[in-house]
Amino acid sequence: MDAILSRVGDAELRQHCVDAVLGELKQVDNQVQNVVSALERTLKVVQASRDVHKSLVLNASEQVQASFRQLGESCNQIGPLLRLLYRNMSVVSSSTTEQPATPTSSAVEGAAPTVSDLQTESKPTATRSTDSASTTTSEYEPSSDEDDDDDVEVVDVTPPTRNKKRKAVTVDLSESTPLVRRKTLQENTQTVRNQLAIELRNIRAIQISRYTVAEHKELSSFVKSIFTAVDNFHDWQPRDDPMLAQLLDEMNKRMDSFKDSSTQNARRKAMDEWLQTMTASSFVPSLDLKSIPLKKDPRAASVEKCHGSQDLSALVKSGTKICSKLRTDTSSNEEKKQKYFQPLVDASTKYFASVLAMEKQEIQANGASRYNDSLRMLCKLAGGTSISRKECAQLEELLYHVRLVMPKNKSFRKKAVKLVFDLLALFPPSARPTFNYPASEPKSKKRKKNKKGSS
After folding, report:
1. Locations of Basic residues compositional bias (predicted)?
2. Three-state SS for 429?
3. 195/66 Cα distance (integer angstroms)
4. The whole model's pTM is what?
5. Which residues 6+ apart lie within 8 Å of 124 measured at CB?
6. How far apart are CA 43 and CA 35, in angstroms?
7. Per-residue pLDDT tens for 263-309?
8. All structural domains of the chain with their residue ranges
């Protein structure tokens, strides 16, 4: 490097560096002008929207507020970069300053015109005092303690001052610019949680058919930002938060209306990863396990049912086969759960859903006692391992069908009471459903039989 530089004169090297910096500055200026043009265009669209709809208050939309905050945060990055640019352009390189650090007054006066020349072009009468030079410098340079703060901080963009002539949600950009203040991590955590509640309320108000790709993209960006900072929040673990889990459920339910494409596949992949990240603590019971008399819940997932005794017997054999394999398996508890939990819970749910579809009482009772073993096996499989949010939902659906079958067979009900208690114990206390045992229906049916006998 020294050999190459020795062949280049100082003036030539200086000019080359100046040209390189000048070219970059001009290119950046062109790009900034494009940003300014885009902002002016956005302002015209806002003004036109207000002219078309006089009562329109754009800041009433949470999505508009979120986009404006994001724009403000992007703009706030320009100021610190300008200060760094100015500081690096005005400070002499350490390699060329091996002389005493304290400059003489004549040296300061000689360097001042490089800054003051910019002022004298627009203001010829301005003096070239050291005070004016320091004022110009402080406009770009960071404060003395800006680099000494090691605390984790979050930059929050505060909306501009409000115009008294309009409603409180209206922002007047002509009077002031967005202000920047430092927020503690605790404040930012509460801000994110509040925004999460707002987004959940808003998406529930949107019909599935009216849910757009743009809305999904904006929500996905919000969710992604949460998972990116998952370990940086104060006393809050998003993976355990029921609100975040419900927001993902609402997004997942609505995105099914989008057409199939490679982009849609990417959306599904991201959604599956987020849902799998959620823990059992984020589960929220949704099915009716409490009503007396019993009621069917339309929210229960549709299960393919059989309509004959032969099909029902085949389901019994299927569950028995899974239990037999499980008894002879010598794998660890975690491996057994991975292999048998899903097939066993699916077979059990399908069996009890099919029992409900049968009309004859003797067919309804067939195999119910044998499926007690399946429920017992499920308790053992999940008892020694952690349970996921998805498994909580599957167990809740199984409990829903078991509860509807219990009044139909007295012997099954007696054995199922203890098993239901064990299944409920698998849920985290904060996510455990409330289960009311249907004890009154079998008695009422028995009284009806006595009346027929007396007549």
Report:
1. 444-455
2. helix
3. 9
4. 0.53
5. none
6. 12
7. 889 999 999 999 988 888 998 888 888 888 777 777 776 655 555 55
8. 1-53, 57-90+151-278, 309-454
